[in-house]
């Protein structure tokens, strides 16, 4: 098998295993229900009649993107730790697959398994809005909004959720992750220096701002790290998406390098 075939094989196995986990779907159902029921009169469900499909579905994606990655980060946090706890790490290392490929496959499979419930939630929201508003473009914008707003954040979270617990333990990671999530996404930068509203904010407020034509949350708000808060535009959206994916891959690069050196010296 070549590297690509090995990567796809590991990714498929990881996806099938993760997508069968009840906790993944229970977390999605619970969080989606909470979001839908508690969005208030300013949520996308109450957006004025005749609003463009892109604005309505961007609103849904922002709502899901604020809360849903928390559940997925919790679920993925014990993935590699569990391999060590169950003693399967040595078995996996004996396979004719390099540690980098194995780790990348686990990342892709875990990301795909966590993205699937998010995509389905957006399609359900798009179906509801299609029936409610009679706009057939809602479903198409549901998919696009998911790809621009939710998926980069999930890619960002998946990398840290897989690797960080190997260093600080899964329970501690979950506590720190929740604290970071609210500090780095919803804390006003004027109140306390935070990453809220920057290109590195994984809830997707830059794509939302670009799609609806106005500032969402703290995008574009001057403050700490103001150079990471350019005006929302197509270019800044692309930069934000690329940065989130690359930063999410950093833990994998570091871990893959460490695992490769450990295998060579073993």
From TrEMBL:
Q: Where are the transmembrane segments?
A: 56-77, 107-126, 138-159, 166-183, 235-259
Q: Which organism is it from?
A: Plantactinospora alkalitolerans
Q: What is this protein called?
A: ABC transporter permease
Cite the entry's keywords alphabetically: Membrane, Transmembrane, Transmembrane helix
